[in-house]
Amino acid sequence: MTDQPERPVEASCDRCKQTRPLFLYQPDHNMHAIPVPCEWCDRDTQPLLCSRCWGVERERELNAPMSADEQAATEFLLGLAANTGRLIRQAEADRAECEAIAAVSTTRED
Ligand SMILES: [Zn+2]
Ligand SMILES: [Zn+2]
Question: Percentage of residues in the chain with pLDDT exceeding 90?
Answer without folding.
Answer: 69
